[in-house]
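As a warm-up, study this chain.
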Amino acid sequence: MITLWLLIIIISIIIEAITTDLVSIWFGLGAIIAMLGSLFGFNDSIQIALFIIATATSLIVTRPIAKKYFKTNVVPTNSDRLIGKHAVVIKEINQDSKGEVKVLSSFWAASSFDNSHIACGSYCEVLAIEGAHLIVKQIES
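Now compare it with the structure written out below.
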């Protein structure tokens, strides 16, 4: 069984080298633990159980951390700088329809974060960007 575990380790290393996302590292870690079990003389059933448990544990523990630090599908845009900025409402924002705001000399479609009415001429703060429109909150005067 040592040959099988060594093969899984090598394949997982090759896959990790080819891809930029962590997709097979957990199988390699599980195979290392199972190979250690094989070296200590554990039977095949225990080695397979060690492989499954070590792979699942390492996946559950490290995957959220890895996703946090290896975000590969996020495309940064300059519009992120709008979050937290103040805007003026150009077209009133109603409960069920988008209005329009002007922020940093640009005009954007906008909706209220709490589905409230914001009158034309009011000031608001940009909380988020969803697609091509802003989510805003009225600034109380």
